Amino acid sequence: MKERLQDYIPKLVLSPSFFLILVFVYGFIAYTGYLSFTDSRILPSYNWVGLENYERLWKLPHWWRAITNLAIFGSLYILICSVLGLLLAILLDQKIRAEGLLRPIYLYPMALSFIVTGTAWKWFLDPGIGLEHTMHQWGWESFAFDWIKDRQMAIYTVVIAAVWQSSGFVMAMFLAGLRGVDSDIIKAAQIDGASAFTTYRRIIIPLMRPVFLSAFVVLAHLAIKAYDLVIALTGGGPGQATELPATFMYSYTFTRNLMGIGASSAIIMMIMIFSIIIPYLYSELRTGVKR
Amino acid sequence: MSFLQIIDLEKSFGNVQVLKRINLEIEEGGFLVLVGPSGCGKSTLLNTIAGLEPITAGEIRIGGRRVNDLHPSKRDIAMVFQSYALYPNMTVAQNIGFGMEIRGVPKPEREKAIARVAEMLQIDHLLDRKPSQLSGGQRQRVAMGRALVRDPQVFLFDEPLSNLDAKLRVDMRTEIKRLHQRMGTTIVYVTHDQIEAMTLASKIAVLKDGVLQQFGTPSEIYNNPINTFVADFMGSPAMNLIPATITNGAGGLAIEMERPSAPPVTLPLASPPKGLAAYKGRSVIFGVRPEALTDPDGADRNAASIAQTECFIEVVEPAGSDTFAVTHLGGKGVIARLRADANIQPGTTAPLTFNLSKSVFFDPETENRIL
Amino acid sequence: MTSAVSQGPLEASRASSTVAPNRLARALIYAALILFAIYYLLPLYVMLVNSLKPLDEIRQGDMLSLPMAGTIEPWLKAWATAQIGVQPTGLKPYFMNSILMVVPAVFISTALGALNGYVLTKWTFRGADIVFGLMLLACFIPFQIVLIPMARMLGILGLAGTIPGLVLVHVVYGLGFTTLFFRNYYAAFPSELVKAAQIDGASFFQIFRRILLPSSGPIIVVTVIWQFTNIWNDFLFGASFASVDSIPMTVALNNLVSSSTGVKEYNVHFAGAIMAALPTLIVYIVSGRYFVRGLMAGAVKG
């Protein structure tokens, strides 16, 4: 009898966590999914309305604004972070004496809250006291940089702040990738007469394809989740100029009291993330089993 | 009366059957070696004896007691692992004493037992060190100390020497043998090294793909392999397995082997196994160990049946104690083991002597021995 | 898969990749690296110097100059008397709220993660992969999807608007990552040690406490830092589920900065922002190596 009890202990230990995840993650997803098919407004309602919320959602200019912004923000964020991260990693990989000092400087923004980042950049980009003001003080009177107040350009300020926060992290991923390349391969390339540039372009960067994939997945999922930074930097404005799906969901659910529409937008966010993450995790776990 | 019995044991992981109806037994004080290539199931079998993995069907008995459902710590066994599995955060003494500590043995008694074992293994000066401060051989001793201190009914060894370098491995092998002779405790020992199996075992079990191929004494396994797998696996260099044909010679059955650019070799068989008559005119696999294929001067004069023939020598490999020569028979490279000072040149023809009383025959279809 | 956790991913295991280029090229490389360093440091510098200036000086001077009449008044105000919401309490009570929320949440989620990782690697059972897959996937959900039911669940449990409620939320949504960290770490921990301890008669918990835990120092540090940083920096859950007396630091900072009444006291905002950043920054400076390991392990999958 005692032996039998021992057999169940591992499962008993795991079960509270598993139960929490099942209820609070998957149960809640199902609940939100259900709400997205109801006419819930300020409170959940169980009145089934089929796809009505989704139809209304995709007719809302506000939602289209959020989706368009996500496309602009997401693609620029991923692209600039990857390019900058790779560049920094390659520069740091040149036997730099001060690497131990520089690396933490590039990476520290990742330790900050997006609220702090947003606060800092909000004032830095504010024409009244920030960069523009400073340039005027220095005598460059015609200097103008007021994107944060400009409906057309405000979304790009979100990109600037987000890149500042995350690019050091991407640098760290690429640097780890560079350091993981078998040094014999590089020696072989040098013996073959390849220049440093050619070695990177033809040998090392192609070998880092898995790092590019990881960076893409991480950045894409951060972009879709982006919420705090927009709230702190622009509050979604001016107007709706920097609205993203995450802020859209929050304001429709809790401010405008259209819970059914908010739920349907959350479901769409989840579908976007899962369509990136699930194939990735699946392939990662697959290769993990083989090893 | 067998001390350790394994009866109709089966083990599956999901749909994959890794051990198929294994039957084994060893007498008290015996030394059973489980040998086979990697993935043959030998370590899994050892783990089931230890109780670290449950079995799917069958029975395991130790000292007449059925232990199938007993926890590993209740089976009265001790185990030495391939990686030694020393607890990295504990000293040598704590490592050896951990099991007693868990069982609540009082401290003075524990210390006495640790000291006794440490002295036996000559590791008393290492007791306060951490495993990371020990050499490979010292770790090996500590691992054995942890097993010895339990004074179990059965010792289980899981490839204990495979992480040591070649010289140390030979030393430790001797040490294990000496220890076994002194303690007289039953041992089950897993290895993929057939020399370890031959030197240590009182009984060898050869496994392949979860099936027990042959179970017997080292000399039975070596001299009377039951199929080509066992013949090929045991012995180094491996037994020559030469495709050949049985013909009717002048004085009875003879064996004929193809040669490149020369007429086939035919050797008369003085005392062929009874079963071979049925293979007249058919092909068989002729098994002859390198030491049964020698230069005429090195041949065993007392052998019941020997035959000599001229062979073309392709390669000569002096190995110090012997010289190996490679010739071509039956479409395969065949290794002969000559005296160290045999005068032989590659690219020439030289006489070789077959000790036919030491040779065996296999069916090419079933790969089983023809008796 | 576990290399990111078990070894420092950035510790150079070999000399860097290329032959040393000529001097000019090296000078350019250094110049580029230093420019980037300035880019990353600039916002922090701006916040710091301006948090020590009186408001007039910010309006008139430029944001990059050092304070002429240095003052710590903005810091004192941000800490103790600034108007946040309706109360002139400063950030102090909210800083305390964050501490009260972060400490138990980090402790519980790390402890559970360690046990889960232990079970999932050393006591696997049929279906363990599915359990782990579901826990791993839970790391990546957009939290918007759980906001509505979570608000209701906290109400049902009587935890709405309380610090224990926030602790529960952070434990639940941190479990995936803590489990992932420990699972990957323990996967590289030799199973033979567990077998040896079983033969020695040690029980499930004895093996964990006596054999695995003493070797878990690095991964505990990584996990604690990861959880601390994430929970301290969280905004969404705090904004959604906190009430007046359980608001965490990030939400309070945002309230301070974006309050539309009265004069915008930039210097106070900057001081507050640095206060909110300080705990995680200190952790980062003290144990940056482990911080990076956590990032990499969290990012570079399972």
From TrEMBL, chain A:
<dbReference type="InterPro" id="IPR000515">
    <property type="entry name" value="MetI-like"/>
</dbReference>
<feature type="transmembrane region" description="Helical">
    <location>
        <begin position="153"/>
        <end position="178"/>
    </location>
</feature>
<dbReference type="Pfam" id="PF00528">
    <property type="entry name" value="BPD_transp_1"/>
</dbReference>
<dbReference type="InterPro" id="IPR035906">
    <property type="entry name" value="MetI-like_sf"/>
</dbReference>
<keyword id="KW-0813">Transport</keyword>
<keyword id="KW-1133">Transmembrane helix</keyword>
<feature type="transmembrane region" description="Helical">
    <location>
        <begin position="12"/>
        <end position="34"/>
    </location>
</feature>
<protein>
    <submittedName>
        <fullName>Carbohydrate ABC transporter permease</fullName>
    </submittedName>
</protein>
<keyword id="KW-1003">Cell membrane</keyword>
<feature type="transmembrane region" description="Helical">
    <location>
        <begin position="258"/>
        <end position="282"/>
    </location>
</feature>
<keyword id="KW-0812">Transmembrane</keyword>
<feature type="domain" description="ABC transmembrane type-1">
    <location>
        <begin position="67"/>
        <end position="282"/>
    </location>
</feature>
<feature type="transmembrane region" description="Helical">
    <location>
        <begin position="211"/>
        <end position="238"/>
    </location>
</feature>
<dbReference type="InterPro" id="IPR051393">
    <property type="entry name" value="ABC_transporter_permease"/>
</dbReference>
<comment type="similarity">
    <text>Belongs to the binding-protein-dependent transport system permease family.</text>
</comment>
UniProtKB/TrEMBL annotation, chain B:
<dbReference type="InterPro" id="IPR003439">
    <property type="entry name" value="ABC_transporter-like_ATP-bd"/>
</dbReference>
<feature type="domain" description="ABC transporter">
    <location>
        <begin position="4"/>
        <end position="234"/>
    </location>
</feature>
<dbReference type="InterPro" id="IPR003593">
    <property type="entry name" value="AAA+_ATPase"/>
</dbReference>
<dbReference type="InterPro" id="IPR017871">
    <property type="entry name" value="ABC_transporter-like_CS"/>
</dbReference>
<dbReference type="InterPro" id="IPR040582">
    <property type="entry name" value="OB_MalK-like"/>
</dbReference>
<keyword id="KW-0547">Nucleotide-binding</keyword>
<keyword id="KW-0813">Transport</keyword>
<dbReference type="GO" id="GO:0005524">
    <property type="term" value="F:ATP binding"/>
</dbReference>
<dbReference type="Pfam" id="PF17912">
    <property type="entry name" value="OB_MalK"/>
</dbReference>
<keyword id="KW-0067">ATP-binding</keyword>
<dbReference type="InterPro" id="IPR015855">
    <property type="entry name" value="ABC_transpr_MalK-like"/>
</dbReference>
<dbReference type="InterPro" id="IPR008995">
    <property type="entry name" value="Mo/tungstate-bd_C_term_dom"/>
</dbReference>
<dbReference type="Pfam" id="PF00005">
    <property type="entry name" value="ABC_tran"/>
</dbReference>
<protein>
    <submittedName>
        <fullName>ABC transporter ATP-binding protein</fullName>
    </submittedName>
</protein>
<dbReference type="InterPro" id="IPR047641">
    <property type="entry name" value="ABC_transpr_MalK/UgpC-like"/>
</dbReference>
Automatic annotation (TrEMBL), chain C:
<dbReference type="Pfam" id="PF00528">
    <property type="entry name" value="BPD_transp_1"/>
</dbReference>
<feature type="transmembrane region" description="Helical">
    <location>
        <begin position="163"/>
        <end position="186"/>
    </location>
</feature>
<feature type="domain" description="ABC transmembrane type-1">
    <location>
        <begin position="95"/>
        <end position="287"/>
    </location>
</feature>
<dbReference type="InterPro" id="IPR035906">
    <property type="entry name" value="MetI-like_sf"/>
</dbReference>
<keyword id="KW-0813">Transport</keyword>
<feature type="transmembrane region" description="Helical">
    <location>
        <begin position="268"/>
        <end position="286"/>
    </location>
</feature>
<keyword id="KW-0472">Membrane</keyword>
<feature type="transmembrane region" description="Helical">
    <location>
        <begin position="94"/>
        <end position="118"/>
    </location>
</feature>
<dbReference type="InterPro" id="IPR000515">
    <property type="entry name" value="MetI-like"/>
</dbReference>
<feature type="transmembrane region" description="Helical">
    <location>
        <begin position="207"/>
        <end position="229"/>
    </location>
</feature>
<keyword id="KW-0812">Transmembrane</keyword>
<feature type="transmembrane region" description="Helical">
    <location>
        <begin position="130"/>
        <end position="151"/>
    </location>
</feature>
<protein>
    <submittedName>
        <fullName>Carbohydrate ABC transporter permease</fullName>
    </submittedName>
</protein>
<comment type="similarity">
    <text>Belongs to the binding-protein-dependent transport system permease family.</text>
</comment>
<keyword id="KW-1133">Transmembrane helix</keyword>
